[in-house]
């Protein structure tokens, strides 16, 4: 029986884990090597190479309603997309509300996590920590590793001939980037077009003499502002859309998605992506298309090599007088404190059962929280993981036999090892993954059951945004405020915008309400047709290219 739990890291995953431990009657002790909570969301000017934090201007890519703790909504007057300082303020409010800080030991580094000699029977761990140069040994019944996936910069210099021995300019990883001042008036090449690369290119274009953005993959760009001005994820991350994604043939869904992708601007005209792309990523960036249109950012293909002051690209073009190369090539995860016999059990999160548990361990007392990439908020996914894990530690939930877990892992793990920079393509469906873990924890809501008992709530859950409150309606950890939080989520979305009220006689909200009601029979009809006609027939019908 687990009682004492070590939680490593006091970022979003660590805070959720402490709270979930307390909910299950466990005794958590959290070790945080910095002086504050927040993890990467705690901005610092420090250039400590071991510390990863957001840069000064970061705004969230997911909206507040879609990325909050499931029983603790953001204040209604907070903006929908948040500056990192507001995210950290929210974490402090959460920690104070649930009295989490007294369980955290700050400025404490975890040096090692090793199995106790009797691990096969006890499942216990030896944890060695250090504070002010003094080491201490602890014994814990279980360990929750909450250091996330922003751990060690991925710096693939070997893939860029000449960067080390010929290029005379400056090069650095985006981890070292804080603000634009050091780049004022310079010619900058940004390598990598993930969310970070896109953001930095746009920001630097305001002060740099020229910004080039190099990418080797097709990229679709979305704005945070979606239909009728609502947040992107609140409009598109719905159970209804997820249902259609599962129901309709993949070829048809691909055509629909590409058409939607191009509804803002034609990506092929900008050199970003083609509807024939089989391998692509999606980023959120409100300003990149305009920067490309105005020439303040110039898109380039993959870099072939560097000379003393130039970058030569794979298409044969060259850009001269490059002052700075900024690598926005992401991060890799490392767990230097884990003993090798444990760390060797997983080379990435796909080697973990449900992306959490090393399946080969004799006792399931080690959990990796937050090492997952989703199409939605990782905060919500991390909290759901913590709820399930602490339920297992407390004895309420059970894991299947090792053979079953290994079969599940091998079934979901691709046969070819991916390049670290391609992890964007490995993002899992937000609703699919969180629902999967919620089902394991016994907290996934049943839309059909609610349709019989609470139709208003059922429709809001199925057609509305899949907000975290949905996972507090049933099961352990049920929250009495969940129903009201769901039914008032659009009010909290509009509240910070009501700083100047105008008369509006539009009946668009009423029309949208009836459209949602009509969508259910349409979906049922689609399901009937799919069952009546073979999937191969649908695929053939949907096969023509756009």
Coarse structural class: alpha/beta
- For CATH, the homologous superfamily of the domain at 4-151 and 333-412 is named as FAD/NAD(P)-binding domain
Name given to the CATH architecture of the domain at 4-151 and 333-412: 3-Layer(bba) Sandwich
According to CATH, the fold-level topology of the domain at 4-151 and 333-412 is FAD/NAD(P)-binding domain
General form = globular
Strand content: 15-25%
Distance between the termini: 58 Å
Structure write-up:
Residues 421-425, 508-512 and 528-546 have low confidence and may be disordered. Among the domains are: 4-151 and 333-412, FAD/NAD(P)-binding domain (3-Layer(bba) Sandwich); 155-223 and 264-329, FAD/NAD(P)-binding domain (3-Layer(bba) Sandwich), CATH 3.50.50.60. Helix content is 32%, strand content 16%. The protein contains 18 helices and 20 strands. The relative contact order is 0.14. It has helices at 12-23, 84-97, 119-122, 195-204, 232-236, 239-247, 250-261, 288-294, 340-343, 378-393, 402-412, 430-441, 447-453, 455-463, 482-487, 489-494, 508-532, 535-541, and strands at residues 4-8, 27-31, 104-105, 109-115, 125-131, 134-140, 142-145, 152-153, 170-173, 187-191, 210-214, 218-222, 280-284, 297-300, 303-306, 311-313, 318-319, 324-327, 331-332, 366-368. The strands form six sheets. Strands 3-2-1-7-20 form a five-stranded parallel beta sheet, with helices on one face. By secondary structure, it is α/β, with parallel strands linked by helices.
């Amino acid at each position: 029986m687990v009682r004492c739990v070590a939680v490593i890291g006091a970022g979003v995953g660590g805070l959720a884990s402490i709270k979930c431990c307390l909910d299950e009657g466990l005794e958590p002790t959290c070790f945080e090597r910095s002086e504050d909570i927040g993890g990467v969301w705690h901005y610092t000017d420090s250039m400590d190479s071991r510390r990863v934090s957001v840069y000064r201007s970061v705004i969230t890519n997911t909206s507040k309603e879609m990325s909050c703790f499931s029983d603790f909504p953001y204040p209604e007057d907070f903006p929908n997309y948040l500056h990192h300082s507001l995210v950290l303020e929210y974490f402090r409010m959460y920690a104070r509300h649930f009295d989490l800080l007294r369980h955290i030991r700050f400025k404490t580094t975890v040096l090692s996590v090793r199995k106790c000699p009797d691990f096969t029977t006890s499942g216990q761990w030896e944890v060695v920590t250090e504070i002010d140069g003094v080491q201490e040994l602890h014994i814990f019944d279980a360990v929750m590793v909450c250091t996330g996936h922003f751990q060690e910069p991925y710096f693939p210099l070997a893939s860029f001939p000449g960067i080390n021995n010929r290029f005379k300019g400056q090069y650095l990883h985006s981890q070292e980037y804080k603000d634009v001042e050091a780049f004022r008036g310079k010619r900058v090449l940004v390598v990598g077009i993930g969310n970070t690369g896109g953001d930095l290119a746009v920001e630097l274009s305001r002060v740099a003499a020229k910004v080039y953005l190099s990418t080797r993959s097709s990229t679709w760009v979305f704005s945070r502002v979606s239909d009728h001005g609502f947040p992107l994820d609140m409009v598109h991350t719905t159970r209804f859309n997820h249902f259609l994604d599962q129901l309709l043939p993949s070829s048809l869904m691909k055509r629909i998605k590409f058409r939607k992708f191009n509804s803002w601007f034609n990506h092929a005209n900008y050199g970003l992506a083609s509807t024939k792309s089989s391998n692509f990523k999606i980023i959120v960036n409100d300003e990149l298309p305009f920067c490309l249109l105005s020439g303040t950012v110039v898109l380039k293909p993959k870099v072939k090599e560097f000379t003393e002051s130039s970058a030569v690209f794979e298409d044969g073009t060259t850009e001269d007088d490059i002052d700075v190369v900024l690598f926005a090539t992401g991060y890799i995860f490392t767990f230097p404190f884990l003993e090798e016999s444990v760390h060797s059990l997983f080379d990435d999160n796909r080697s973990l059962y449900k992306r959490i548990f090393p399946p080969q361990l004799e006792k399931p007392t080690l959990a990796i929280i937050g090492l997952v990439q989703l199409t939605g908020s990782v905060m919500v996914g991390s909290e759901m993981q913590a709820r399930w894990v602490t339920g297992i530690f407390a004895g309420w939930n059970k894991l299947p036999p090792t053979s079953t877990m290994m079969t599940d892992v091998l079934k979901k793990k691709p046969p070819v090892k991916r390049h670290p920079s391609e992890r964007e393509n490995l993002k899992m469906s937000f609703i699919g993954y969180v629902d999967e873990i919620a089902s394991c924890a016994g907290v996934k809501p049943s839309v059909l059951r609610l349709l019989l008992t609470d139709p208003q709530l059922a429709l809001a859950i199925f057609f509305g945004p899949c907000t975290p409150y949905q996972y507090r309606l049933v099961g352990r950890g049920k929250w009495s405020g969940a129903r009201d939080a769901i039914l008032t989520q659009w009010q909290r979305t509009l509240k910070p915008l009501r700083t100047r009220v105008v008369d509006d006689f539009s009946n668009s909200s009423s029309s949208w309400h009836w459209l949602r009601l009509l969508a259910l029979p349409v979906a049922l009809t689609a399901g009937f047709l799919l069952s009546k006609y073979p999937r191969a027939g649908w695929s053939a019908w949907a096969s023509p290219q756009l």
